[in-house]
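hey can u check if this looks right to u? its 439 residues, i copy pasted from the old doc so theres a chance i mangled smth
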Amino acid sequence: MDSSHSDGHDYPKSFGELVPWGDPAWYRGYNSPYYTQSHHDWRVKVRAFVEEHIEGNVRQWDEQKSVPKEIYTKMYQAGLLPAVVGAPWPADFVGQGGPDNFDAFHSLIFIEELGRCGSGGVLWAIMGGMGIGLPPVLHFGSQHLKEKCARQCLTGEQFICLAISEPYAGSDVANIRTTATKDASGDFYVVNGEKKWITNGVFADYFTVACRTGGPGIGGISLLLLERTMPGIECTQMDCMGVWPSGTTYITFDNVKVPKENLIGVENAGFMYIMYNFNYERWGIIAQATKLARVCLEEAFKYANKRRTFGKKLVEHGMIKWKLAEMARQVESTHAHLESLTYQLNTIPREEHFTHLDLIMDISLLKVQATKTFEFCAREAAQIFGGASYVRGGQGEKVERLYREVRAFAIPGGSEEIMLDLAVKMAQKKYGHVLKSRL
């Protein structure tokens, strides 16, 4: 392979199977200002693990609706699992061992290489609980709470999830009804309520739970760390359209006694912690949806070069060329915007992320762009595969599965409608500041 780079790096100029648009542009020889030798070494490492331990098992895990616990242990032993919580590498709990200068682009590569397996359910089984459930503890929890659960989760010994959504409050986080009331001693919170659509909940040992500890609205919400061993917690795995191995769960809390020491951060400041977490959750959904859209494109391109109809390859039919080009156009433009926002996450101080209006606006818009692109590509890939995409297993396995999983990306983390509304609200707020400054 040609290893010449204008930036002086000596990693291969091209990498992977080189299916047109099957991987991001820098895999295909394009020069990029974002990636270094460390990023290349990391993609080689993640890809090798995925090919050896994940790709051949996806259908089995999908059907059994879980990923074996040993996979998490192997991921930790391979130096991969701690990457789930994003930058910075959590060295305080697992020691050094991550990539050099671990950053948001390493996180992006991690998602993209895992996503090659073509299963949002496997992605969420690995990332969907710890990726959003542990960061509030790491960033806002006491040393006591960090020592209680961080290392155990980062090494794959135990699991954690984030429990915010309820049967009556999904995107409407400010109106959650689960309550946490101090008992007479003042030493315990008593938690009552329900949570729904909780990723990894059925497997979880720990639950980062949004509760109402104060009055109505955003000023009365706190985060508590609940533990599976606490009496009164009941988890039921939900039978969903897709992402089956992710353990989507309905949880009930019935007079669960939680020590006051399990409060994450400050009482009634939970909404701020949730908003702080949301940018990264949404960025992760964007990265996953964009990669899975690319998987649909790659699978369709390969199939169109193999399948013959009316005496010629599918790809030689004009309509099929149009479908592939439309998919590629949307995937490539979405990915370019994703890289731009990933660079912002790297360079804007982290403490400014959840109040940075431009970042909130553009992450919101890009989540919609990514999930709509995923939906388009899943549909067009299914049309190209025809009946093969209607069968679980076989040549169309990935496309059939991903077609079922689109809604799991378009709704959670803020539905498309909520994201568009939020983007314009933030734009109006910023423009108001601009107009005010001109008075």
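The chain has a mean pLDDT of 94.
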